[in-house]
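Ticket #4471: complex job returned nothing on first submit. Input attached below:
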Amino acid sequence: MITYALVFAMACIGLGLLMNLWLLVRGPGRADRVLALDTMVINVVALLILYGIRQGTGVYFEASMLIAMVGFVSTVAYCRFILRGDIIE
Amino acid sequence: MLVEIVVCVFLVIGALFGLVGSFGLLKLQDTMQRLHAPTKATTLGIGGVLIASMLYFLLIKDSFSFHELMITLFLFLTAPISANFLAQTHISLRMKQSDLPESGGAYGWSLFDDPPVMEKPSEPAAPTQAPH
Amino acid sequence: MNHWIIAPVILPALLAPLIAFVMRHDIVLARAASSVGTLALLAISVGLTIMAANGGVHVYYLGNWPAPFGIVLVLDRLSALMVLLTALLAVIVLFHAIATGWDKRGNHFHALFQFQLMGICGAFLTGDAFNLFVFFEVLLIASYGLMVHAGGKVRLQAGLQYVVMNLVGSTLFLFALGTLYASTGTLNIADLIVKVQESNAGDDGLIRVAAMLLLIVFGVKAALVPLHFWLPATYANAPAPVAALFAIMTKVGAYAIIRIHGMAFGPENPATGSLISDWLFVLALVTTAVGAIGVFGARRLGSLLSYAVIGSMGTLLLAVSAFDPYAITTALYYLVHSTFAAAALFLLADLIIARRGNDWLGVQPATVQNGLFAALFFAGAIAMAGMPPLSGFLGKLMILDALRSPEVIGWAWTAILLGSLLTILGFAQAGSGLFWKSTASTPSDMGKAADAPGDQAKSDTDRLATTALAIAPSMIALCVLAALTVMAGPVTTYLEATSAQLHDSSNYVDAVLNGNSREEK
Amino acid sequence: MLRKLVPHPFLAVSLACVWLALVNKITLGNIILGGFLGLVIALITAPYWPGKPRVRDPFKVVGFVFLVMWDIVVANVQIALIILFKPTDKLKSAWITVPLELTSPEAITVLAGTITMTPGTVSATLSSCGRAILVHALHTDDPIAVRDDIKSRYEKRLLEIFS
Amino acid sequence: MFSENGLLPIIAILPFLGALVPGLMIRAGRNACASFTAIPTVLALVLLASLAPGVMSGTVYRAEITWLPQLQLSASFFLDGLGLLFAFMILGVGLLITLYARFYLSSKDPMGQFYTYLLLFQGAMLGIVLSDNILLLLIFWELTSLSSFLLIGYWKHLPEGRQGARMALTVTGAGGLAMIGGMLILGEIVGSYQLTDILAAGDQIKASAWYAPAVILILLGAFTKSAQFPFHFWLPHAMAAPTPVSAYLHSATMVKAGVFLMARMWPALAGTELWFYVVASVGLVTMVLGAVIALFKDDLKALLAFSTVSHLGLLTMLLGFGTPEAAIAAVFHIINHLTFKAALFMTAGIVDHETGTRDIKRLGGLAKVMPITAAIGTVAALSMAGFPLFNGFLSKEAMLHEASHTTWWENPWIVGALATLGALFSVAYSLRFIFHVFAGPVRDDYPAKPHDPGFGMWAAPAFLCVFVIAIGVAPFLATPVVKMAAEAVTGEDLSFYLKIWHGVNTALLMSVAAIIGGVILLVAHRPLERLWATMPRPEAKTIFDSLITTTQQVMRWLTGMLHQGAISRYLAIFVAATVVLGLIAFSGGAMGPATRDLTPVPPVAFVGWMLLMAAVAMVVLFHRMRFRALVVIGVIGLMISVGFVYLSAPDLALTQISVETVTILLLLLALHFLPKQSPHESGPARRAGDATLAVMAGVAVAALAYSFMMRDFSTISDYYLANSKSGGGGTNVVNVILVDFRGYDTYGEIIVLGIAGLCIFALMEALLNGPAGRKLRKAEFGPDRSRDRHPLMMVVATRVMLPIALMVGVYIFLRGHNQPGGGFVAGLIFSIALLMQYMASGFAWTTRRQRIEYHSLIGFGVVIAGLTGVGSWLAGRPFLTSNFGYFEIPPIEEFELATAMLFDLGVFLCVLGAVMLILYSLSRLARHAGETVNNEPIDYDPSRSVQASSSTGKGA
Amino acid sequence: MELLVASAVGALTAGGVYLMLRLRAFAVILGLALLSYAVNIFLFSTGRLAVAKPPVLDGYTVSDFGAYTDPLPQALVLTAIVISFGMTAVLVMFALGAYLEAGDDKIDMDGPDQPDRQIAATTPQGSESDGITFGFEPRERDA
Ligand code: NA
Ligand code: NA
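Support reply: We reran it on our side without changes. The output follows.
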């Protein structure tokens, strides 16, 4: 049963990723594109956790944690670039 | 069996909220409205999946796993900041101060108004010492 | 196991950070450290050459892991020779940089210089294909820094192109190594030799692609047409000592071809057959032509020398393409020769340009010490163009002698001989433009000096004395060429043994894979 | 002296917990190691956190956390329904200015974060003097009520928590 | 015996050693310089003379010094009759020229240089005639080209000098290179480069299939050197040299080298039809042509130059006949030509020196004012004309005799007729030299006031005239010398007598005809000159110049077109070449069938693939919107990381995503300065071409990857799996490979990073100190930026995030050996955490809290990693041998201590330092651009301002 | 899966090559970034693809090599990633420097033999035009 739930969950997240992609393509604004990427990161983290459950291993945990962390950093950097130009001032 | 059902419920809830979040991105028309969508993915979406994971390892794999909490911690800490920045980005790219309500004080919103001059610097404004 | 084998890598690698981080505010200290380090490197490399001269293949098992699993360093006659060459060139170049003050015109010259040496020595010593990539990168990135040392618009633009070209080359290197690993499952060069020979015919396609891609990669370094485009702008715009040091960089490419293609993908290999040999020949032929044409058409001293380097690489690679022991011997002789010839000329060009203010080749008024520089330039040009009596002529003669097989003789001889002619003419024209305007206004001219009042002569002598330090490195490079000429016999005997050692790869393979110099863990 | 060595004791403890979460097991060895690392890292990072928020009542923190979590769940469902079933042209979004009484940067940040994490509202920016916060509501008929709700439900509690 | 042989190398080296003398002696004055220059020549002459008796009696001296045995190149010399004759000529005339030049050169001319060049040239010539190794001969041969280049171009201020020198170098250098080819072929045929072997192998050579190319190539060398038609044009232009140079080069040496070579190679090459038709014909044409042109030259030296061309043609023709008699005539004429031609050149030099002009039209009547000069000139010129009682007559007679007995293309008279014609013109120009210069009335419009020069100047030509007359009157005096040399040429015993009178024979009649005709020509010179002027004739110099210029222009164009600086084209060529060569390589070898099954694709993986492909397409399509492209690059990095996770590479995923982030930060920092959009610059055709190339490359790479992924292979990797724990002490095999099995790679890799940091720092400093720095200071910012520099929420969140992130970094570092992670990723995490701090609170505020310099971090990292490696030397192990153990602290669980960990610490520090130094450098540029320095972590802190306002009264 | 990986490598290569051939340094940087992704995956794939077999040993002894994917290419890719990061950083800085000195970020330059390419003897000179404006993009208009 869990297998089916996992497949379902992965399908949902996969669908979500495609939707993010669509927003990324469509935009229209820069904020939308960054938003799409930010959401994509979150979906990917969810996907990796699901994958970890499916494989029954915690070996992928660091990857998801790191992705969550650096995803934030890049989102902030993109936004600061638009807002201020110089991301470190 | 019950255990499995519990895990599955969390998985399904998480997945659905994640999907709704992404769907919202497409459906909502305005960037500010779209900004509301991912909060679902970060909170209940990921939350559901993480809880499912913890329960799965605890109940089915018999290993106590709580490092998922770290991811929750990160997301709860960072998501608001990201959203805040995205909102500011949107405002700065698409809006004028006049499109926004008054701040109600002497100073306008921080995007458009310089901050008040600090009366007392916390330390002397020494010339920056390059470390090299 | 003899730890001296790794010294040429470790010494600069430890020295460079010290120079960069401890002595970066004190140029005198940095100069001293850099000089001592480079001289020590020279001493070590002499020792290693003596050690290698007995004909043994010395293997250093890094991390004490057996080959092919760990990385090995291999000291044979060829790698010892190349390290020695590097060290000697480095000493010359370093003293030029110090004497002319080039090292002060930007940050971190000495650190980058040492790192550059580390990269070059590492590339020569390694017995592992992927490690060769790593050290290529070390030497490249250091060269990027040296290339734009002191900055400036054109230099930066040229530097940018240099970086881009080499990044593409590095990427291709990885594609090649990937293909090689995918088909042979190993990275150790000795093991590669074995695996390629034993490979199943179904993998021939992959092995051939890998060999060809590697040829292109090394061709980029060796300025093989059509991969040479980076060279003219780079050499013409690099700081002079760096351009002189780069004389060894093109040789790294040639070395890699000799080492890897010569040992693993030579004509006797069933998978590759004459593929590499044939294409290398064709491309080297065109390279010789392009270089000679460029020399003849050059308008700047910098580009003249750059094209001369390209032409010399063409000649060298023509010899390499034969992949037979005598041809490799001649190629090695020419390699040694052309390294110092190029270095001498670039260093001289620096001094000349500094006196003239530009490197335009039109006829211009003569400058101070015109006669001296004319003589030195003449000697360098003779060497570079392959005119007698210097080593360039002997090298070319040997290469012609080696390229006698009926399929190649016509093309090769025509290219080399016509190329020489164009090069000679290009240099003659350049020299007459640079030095032959008028001697009447040159106070340091010998004839005039004799008749001139004492004070005048004295002050000229003083000026000459102040630049003696600056001229010395170029003179040393020329002296090396002279020594190479006089000692051509013994040198060639050494090189003959070197290429014989290369040709019989079983010794190499045996030493690396079954070596007993590895200690028990 | 001790304050210099242990500038943020609470942070050090939290970091020890983080360590345990990271290694994913609770053993004596890891508690000691985590505690040690927590102290060291807190010390190293102290210069970057010059002021210290004073938490008056730790228990209220727990209450606040549970309140927010409950609000998140409820609001998530509401917003999901809006997204899924409400035609976009019927959405009434609004910008709302929320004047602030909180002055501590940490408290303001927690409030803004809470506003954002509870679906339906996003905190967009502060006034440049930090005395008001600009909030965007996805769908509301009564912006004033949303503002009052934020002030009474969250800011009041935060004022109690942070001195 | 040994000692006599041993003299040969000494003789050969003496001039070169001597070349050092003038430079040193010039400071002692001009006379000393000249005297000391003469010393090596005299010494060589003396030594040579000591060997002469032996040679005359048939001994051939040999000496060999091993030089480059692999090439069979040895410094081997031999001295036979021919060599002795030439050596004497070279040294003897050299001595005379040394004397002459002392008085000829003005005090403005750098005499030291002159004598140096002269001795170099003399040495090169001497080498040619003494070499017993044809490769050695080649070396000397090319040296004559080089040193004559210096001599001809000696008067650097004269453009004609420079051009003439270059022309001579071009023509003779080219011939020399052809000769290299010929000599190498010859060596191949004979199996030896020793001249003696080659001369003995004439039949073998002539029978070889390679004979023709060898002969042609060698003759190209000889003809160019000896100015044979159609290569004759360089010689007159070489007259721009000072007259001593002309006298030397064009009488005894340079041009005679070609003749010498033909004579030397005579036994090996001569006597075939090919030889006859090529050599004799070329010689004949040259002889006639040179004589005709000489008649119409008004410049004295030009007249002599073309007469030299003509006489060289004569010699060539004689050698071409291939008969011993012709060889004798040739050898005899070589000697005679030397004597009168050197004298004539010196005479011309004296005339020039004294009157200030060499233009025949401005001369005449000099016999009265310069009687000695006139006498010398007349004697020499009469000899050149071939008048009896002068030596020229004798050899010319011999020549005419041989010519009249030669059948060419079945035509028995044509050679004789043409030879007579040549002789006729020869008489004409010789007489013109006498009559138009010395005879006639004294003029009053000479540029200078002429009178006979001092003894020093006329001594040398006078000395030569002694020989002219002596041989002319008593030819038997020359017989032994001619016999000696001619026997050496032909390799046969010859018996003959040189005598004046041979009776009335064809040759005499031809000679008489020539003299009569010559006189007539001279009388009719005026009208003939007008006729000559109207005749269309190709000007060799113009043709040569335009040839050279055109070639140079074509090559410039070619070079410029190839190297136009457009790296985009370079790269296109690079890619195209790679694809094409790769395809060629691939198609030439077999590729076995697939041996693996396809791995199944779950839908989610497919989705990831779609995202990746879409993102690649977007980057390509939107690359001109730079910011958007950067966002999309983020997607690519993310997808690749996930892909690595899925494909069992967690370490790769960690590294990829962190590197990705840092790279994007870097690019954003750079993009701040750069234009935010790229303009449309390439047209559709170019884009289509590039796209085609790109797709080809993509398809090729994909096909390559696919083809190996479908095939099994055996690899060395099982060893790593088996030994990772037992030998390397870690369960994360990838990490153990990185820090242990292949730690040396990693060592190189961190050094790359460290160097990157240094490069960037150095470049940043250079930029700030240069024009870029000034530009930056004038930089302006757009008006639209947000006013919020250090947003409060961000600052607070970072305060919490920083310690946690550092904790994560420590965690990743410590577990790396056993689980995914390690020093590199940990370093990146630390960097990212610090960067967050920089982004939140600004550069200045954060940097002030920095305790360690980034420079030092890199240094520590590299040094720690290096010393860890070196440490294993202490245990007698090789560099980077790791040591590990498990260290039990009772309450803390098993805690591994491997030296590899220390190495990993080096990696960590280096990465951290390098990344931070790179970003620091970039943000320093920004601060240079007028960023205001922040002293506060937050732009405005509401709590502090409240405190501040409430505490104002207390004066805190 | 092999097809997906191969096509991804191909697409990244194609995109990278196309961008690398553009005329602006920034596009070239993007192109090289894509190329380096491509080569990393390519190199990784030489160990052949394996799902759920990370090379992290379960126990102390290895009995079944098939349970783990090939670790060597992964280590090579890690090295390659790090190196290409360093290289990218240098490239970016060079591009920036060239832009600041030259005033545009065109990657092509005149051939080495052009008259205006004479290098100065001692101090290098760059064109000293006006200061630059770090142009912010104009505000976005609604699509
Ligand atoms: Na690792
Ligand atoms: Na690595």
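Chain E touches chain A through 63 residues (CB under 8 Å). Closing as resolved unless it happens again.
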